[in-house]
Amino acid sequence: MKILSHVQSLTGVGHFVRGLEIARALGARHDVRLVDGGWPVPRASAPDGVTFVEIPRVYRVDGQLVALDGSPNLGEVLRARAARLVALARALRPDVVVIEHFPFSKWEIEGEFRALIDAARAAHAGVKVVCSVRDVTRKTRFDDGPAGAPPYAERVRAALAAFDAVLVHSDPRFLRIEEQGALPARLSYTGFVSRKLSPGAASRRALEDAFGSRRPVLASAGGSRRGLDLLRMVMTAWQHVAGAPALLGRQLVVFAPARAGEPDVEALRGLADGTSIRVERFDPDFLEWLAVAELSVSRAGYNTCANLLEIGRRAVLIPDLSMSDQPVRARRFAALGLAEVLEDPSPEACAEGILRALARPEPRHDLALDGAEQTRRLIEALCEGEASSWSGRAAARSRCATVDVTMGTKGNRRRT
Asked: Is domain 202-359 classified as CATH 3.40.50.2000?
C-alpha cells in the first residue's frame, strides 16, 4: 500500500520519534511517505520503505508558533505547507493517510490537516484516514481555539467524523481515553510503541566494556531546551549524594536535549566535576545506553517511558507540570509501582529519590509493547475491509482486553 503519514512535533521531538518507529514497521511491507516539518531530529538514514518528505518547518518558541527559517510571515509558511501536502496527496493517491494526534491536539495547524484529508479523498475515494494518538489525550494549553469556538471535547468529536479509525498507542490497562466522550470513529489500542534493542549492537557492547559492573545513572530531558533546568537540578542533586555508598564508583551521564545548542552543552559541561558526572549530546541511540544503565532520571514523556517499559529499568520520573500528558503518565507509573515520581522537587528531594530508586528491585510488568507492529496489522486489516478482523485483533490479545467504545450519541454503546 501507499501510506502518507503526517507527524508533527511542535515543542520537543517525541511525536516524530514515535511516528518514525511506526513508519519503520509500516515500511517493512509498504511504501511510506513520512512528512518531516518540525525541528530536525537527529537520526540515522530513513528506514527501508520510508521516504522523508520535507515541508517548511515550524515549531514553538515561548509558546508561539514560528518558522524555523526565520520567516516573519507565519501565514505564508502555513499556506506553503498545506499546498505541499495537497500536491503530495494528489501525486501519491495514498491508500492510507495517518495523521498523528489531531484532532486531540495541534489545532494551530488544523487547516493543513483538513486540506490533506480533502485532497487525499479527492484523489482516491477509497483512502482510509487514521488518527494515531498517544496514551494521554488531554487538552493542551494551545488547544482553546478562537473566541466563540465550541468547547474542546465538542470540537474533537466533530473533527473525528473525518477519520475512519483511531489508533491509541497504549495498553488499556495502563490508561484509557474513553473519558474523552463520544468517539465517532473506530477505536483500537495497539500497545505502546516502543523501540527495540538491536541484537548484539556494537555501541552497546562498547558501553558494557566501558562501565563494567558499575553501571551508569542516566539523566535526560527529551527534546526541548526547557529540559536544561531539570538537568542542572539533577546534577546538583547528584553532587549532594555522590559520596553515598550506593553511588560509590558510579557516574551520572547527562544527555543534553535535542534542541540544545553548543553553548547549552558547554554550560552543562561546566557544571560537571569531570569524574562523577559526564555530559553527552542528545543521542538517538539512547535505548542502547539505557540497556546498560542502573537507573534513569528523566521527564515523563511518552518515548522515554516506553523505553523504560521496554528495558525494565529503575527510574525517577520528574514530569514537566506544564505538559498535559506528563503528570498523568508519571502518576500511572507510580500507581503501578514502575517508578519513583517527584513533582517539582528540590535538589535535596531529587537526591533522596535517586537513592530510593536504586534500592528498589527492577520493575516488572506485562504491558503490551508491540504497538508499531500492531499498528501495521490494524491498518492492513482496515484496508482489507476485515471488520471482524479489526474488532478482534486487539481484543483477542490477552494483554489488551476488549475495548468499550462510545459510538455516536451518549448511551449508544457497543463493544469492539
From this structure: yes
Sign of CA dihedral 360, 362, 367, 368: positive
Domain ranges of the chain: 2-192+369-415, 202-359
pLDDT of 416 > 50? The answer is no
- The string of pLDDT tens digits covering residues 162-215 is 999 999 999 999 998 887 666 767 789 999 999 999 887 778 888 888 888 789
**Can you give the pTM of this predicted structure?**
0.89
Question: What is the rounded CA–CA span in Å between residue 91 and residue 212?
Answer: 53
Homologous superfamily of domain range 2-192+369-415: Glycogen Phosphorylase B; (3.40.50.2000)
Instruction: Please report the pLDDT score of residue 145 as a whole number.
Output: 79
Instruction: Supply angle C-alpha 335, 339, 343, rounded to 5.
Output: 80
C-alpha dist (Å) from residue 241 to 182, 205, 275, 290, 292 = 50, 29, 14, 22, 22
Beta strands in 75-193 (DSSP E): 96-100, 128-133, 165-168, 186-189
Name the grid cell of 131.
488518527
Residues 264 and 4: their CA atoms lie apart, in Å, by 36
CA distance linking residue 84 with residue 37, whole number of Å? 11
